[in-house]
Amino acid sequence: MNPGRAPASAANARIDRWIRRELRRAPLKAQSLVITVWGDAIAPHGGVIWLSGLIRLLAPLGLNERLVRTSVYRLAREGWLAARQDGRRSLYRLTAQGRMRFEHAYRRIYAPPAQDWDGTWDVVLAPPAALTDGARRSLRQELGWEGFGALGAGVFVRPTRAAAPGALAEILAARDLRHRVAVLAGRDAPGLAARSLQAYVRECWNLAGVAAEYRAFLARFAAVSRNFGSGGSVDPERCFVVRSLLIHAFRRVTLHDPQLPAVLLPPRWPGSAAYALCRDFYRLTQRPAEQHLLATLATAGGVLPPAAPYFYRRFGGLDPR
Question: Would you state the pLDDT for residue 3?
């Protein structure tokens, strides 16, 4: 990866070729990648770093200094990050709003696929007269990221999730919509010869499109993950780069995945296999990837603080040693 490094092993050489090919095949959108890396790697260590360290961290991922600076500036302008100047150096940290956004997005990535479901639905009613067109589009997008499908104009539904009960309330509060939309919990009425809400799954969500994205993800990352073996023969930088590319791609698929319980999914759903690939690779490369992160980044007080406890709960549990 870096000039002057000792000759790479055969596995490292294959990984380098794969990285170069991937970066040529699908150039990354800088701001989206910054969000991925910040949420996946930086936020667990306090979310406060020097901009110069971030530039070094993202260079092997194909982002130059100008792209990183522009992306961070835009994220600060949009409320994700806040800056503090120290002479000619810039220290960036997550804002409270940015932290909430990260928590929503990354809760979807690291939690195992939903299995059990009690048959209850969350229903959001947003009457057209109560919202402007812009507010309705924004609400639909945010609800989509939380797994809601549009059943009709201003009617959004999803299977009730016990794991994240506060996300919907936070979305409505952030947009000052709590008193302009109705939120209901419902079940199919027993004994009526009526169509079940379960029958509307294909109309509310594009499951065929999401399945195709998962299969493409598996085809893209399954081969390269096998080159990592026990993790000891691949250097920390490569572990971090491939892990970041993998999580970035997985995050983009999960943004479209409503994460329905298993009973509502079609047979041979590939989401579970994609999650297992991420979980296994994350566990395999956890230590070397963290070594690279700690060697590259610093905060105002010096080295990065240890990862927060929630980091070790990802993917059903990581090794805290």
Answer: 42
**Would the pTM count as exceeding 0.85?**
yes
Is 180 within a domain?
yes
Check residue 6 and give its pLDDT.
Answer: 41
Average pLDDT over residues 167-177: 80
The 3-state secondary structure of the chain reads CCCCCCCCCHHHHHHHHHHHHHHHHCCCCHHHHHHHHHHHHHHHHCCEEEHHHHHHHHHHHCCCHHHHHHHHHHHHHCCCEEEEEECCEEEEEECHHHHHHHHHHHHHHHCCCCCCCCCCEEEEECCHHHCCHHHHHHHHHHHHHCCCEEEECCEEEEECCCCCCCHHHHHHHHCCCCCCCEEEEECCCCCCCCCCHHHHHHHHCCHHHHHHHHHHHHHHHHHHHHCCCCCCCCCHHHHHHHHHHHHHHHHHHHCCCCCCCHHHCCCCCCHHHHHHHHHHHHHHHHHHHHHHHHHHCEECCEECCCCCHHHHHHHHCCCCC
Strand partners, 125: 155, 182
pLDDT higher than 80, residue 230: no
Q: What is the pLDDT of residue 1?
A: 56
Pairwise pLDDT comparison (255 vs 244), residue with the higher score: 244
Q: Is residue 144 part of a domain?
A: yes
Domain count, the chain: 1
Split at pLDDT 50, 70, 90, the class of 4 is very low
Instruction: Examine residue 91 and state whether it is found in any structural domain, yes or no.
Output: no
**Domain span holding position 151:** 121-186
For residue 232, being part of any structural domain is answered with no
Distances (CA, A) of 188 to 119, 156, 204, 301, 303: 8, 16, 17, 56, 55
- Label residue 162 by pLDDT band (50, 70, 90): low
